[in-house]
Amino acid sequence: MIKVLIADDQAMVRQGFGALLGAQPDLLVVGDAADGAQAVTAARELRPDIVLMDVRMPVMDGLEATRRIMSSGGGPKVLILTTFDLDDYVYEALRAGASGFLLKDAPAADLVSAVRVVASGEALLAPSVTRRLIAEFAARPHRDRPRPVELNALTPRETDVLRLIARGRSNAEIADDLVVAEQTVKTHVGRILAKLGLRDRAQAVVFSYETGLVAAGE
Q1: Which one of 8, 92, 138, 203 is CB 3.0 to 4.6 Å from 216, fit for a cystine?
Q2: CATH 1.10.10.10, domain 143-210, yes or no
Q3: Over 161-213, what HEC string results?
Q4: What are 149-166's pLDDT values in tens digits?
């Protein structure tokens, strides 16, 4: 059973999402929160697997709430709910530890699927979000950075896979690019995340650009 906490300042949104998710046999809504501060407290007390986190909330916004929830370690995964896929918070939310983004006006089936995907350990990173991340780095002054020592733990093939993850490729697309089986790619991804101490693909994308493994515009 996947336990879900819903954080949104609009009661109708909380109730609507709660009814939708609660009707699924494998999902359990354990609580809700009307602002980021409540979300942090509820996440600590209720120990959900997933927090659906709105970005713009009173008292404490979703970005700060995500940062505090993730800083405790071993906590829930955070799925950001946003009105626009090019929200200004996208990059900072990823750095704070969010595992994905979902538009509030997405079809009901997409919400249910998103919760399951993130709970399974995958990241939900739409191509538009990846483009936003790339644009963020493209706007920064270029600096030559030394190769991070963490990358030395990767094999050449794992490094290739990481570069493709950073460009927003799916496992199937990576398999096509490298002419290998999709299951082989899944194995590589799992090893990459374990070796680098990363939570999911979203964190792998951030790591790749911040360390200079991949440069915007390559």
Answers
A1: 138
A2: yes
A3: HHHHHHCCCCHHHHHHHHCCCHHHHHHHHHHHHHHHCCCCHHHHHHHHHHCCC
A4: 778 899 999 999 999 988
Instruction: Read off the pLDDT of each residue in 41-64 and give the average, rounded to a whole number.
Output: 92
Residue in the block written with tokens 């906590």: 75
Burial 114-151 (b: 16+ CB within 10 A, else e): bbebbbeebbbbbeebbebbbebbeeeeeeeeeeeeeb
Place of tokens 């109730």: 15
Q: How far apart are CA 25 and CA 157, in angstroms?
A: 40
CATH 3.40.50.2300 correct for 2-124 = yes
Question: 48-68: string of b/e by CB count within 10 Å (b at 16+)?
Answer: bbbbbbbbebeebbbbbbbbb
* Token pair in block for residue 93: 């939310």
pLDDT, tens only, 77-107: 999 887 765 556 667 777 778 888 877 777 8
Give residue-wise pLDDT tens across range 167-191.
777 788 899 999 999 999 999 999 9
